Amino acid sequence: ALSLLSLLSLPVSAGSPPGPEEQLVAAAPRWGWRNVSCPACRVLFGALDLALQLEPNVARVGRVASRLCQELRLARPPVCRQAVQLFQGDVVAAWARSVLRPPEACGLLLGPRCGHWDILGAWNLSLPAAPKPPVRPPAPPPPGAPTARILFLTDLHWDRQYVPGSAAACPDPLCCRGAPREGPGAAGFWGSYSKCDLPLHTIDALLAQLPNGTARAGNDTRDGTGGFAAAYWT
């Protein structure tokens, strides 16, 4: 089955066919579902659907999914292995309960030429005829009302594999990893506006620079956090 999928998904060229490693290296700039043909997609999801109906073994399905990900060049081998390891439980559980059949899944991934899906199609909702209640503008608090300081942190994504100086642009889902490099396009010390998350020292520096606020009786703020009534980290 894996060999059949490879034949259905990989382009045919004249001369002696390159080996698996050469194929993966040559495909590096174009990882993704666009390497999969429509017949290969249908065979893939048909096999997964049948396997999950017969025996939804998470570890076994994960091993097959990792191999298929590599054979079909959906991502580099390390990315395939790590993604399957992280998400195999969720994916197997979702697919086993999914109402999406193989033609619909392939239409979602490859477009309408490979299948029909209307999950995000137009839909209507009838509302009751009751009138909306009148709008009441919010009233500001009166002068002298008590106040509080709130700390709100959002989207602090830590990448424990972040390497300053590594490539900030890459074909993988997450970059700024690997060996440092010279020249433009290198990951910054504090982070990069690219497909990258943050190094831990950036988050450490952020927390260390929090303002102390104003000390009150019984509320020593010298540690940098005592001046906040609450902290929200989302």
Automatic annotation (TrEMBL):
Q: Name one GO cellular component term.
A: lysosome
Xref: InterPro entries: SaposinB_dom
Q: Which GO terms describe its biological process?
A: ceramide biosynthetic process; sphingomyelin catabolic process
According to the record, the signal peptide region is 1-15
Which UniProt keywords are listed? Answer: Disulfide bond, Glycoprotein, Hydrolase, Signal
Domain Saposin B-type spans what residues?
34-118
One of the entry's Gene Ontology molecular-function terms is: acid sphingomyelin phosphodiesterase activity
**PANTHER family linked to this entry:** SPHINGOMYELIN PHOSPHODIESTERASE
Q: What is this protein called?
A: ASM phosphodiesterase
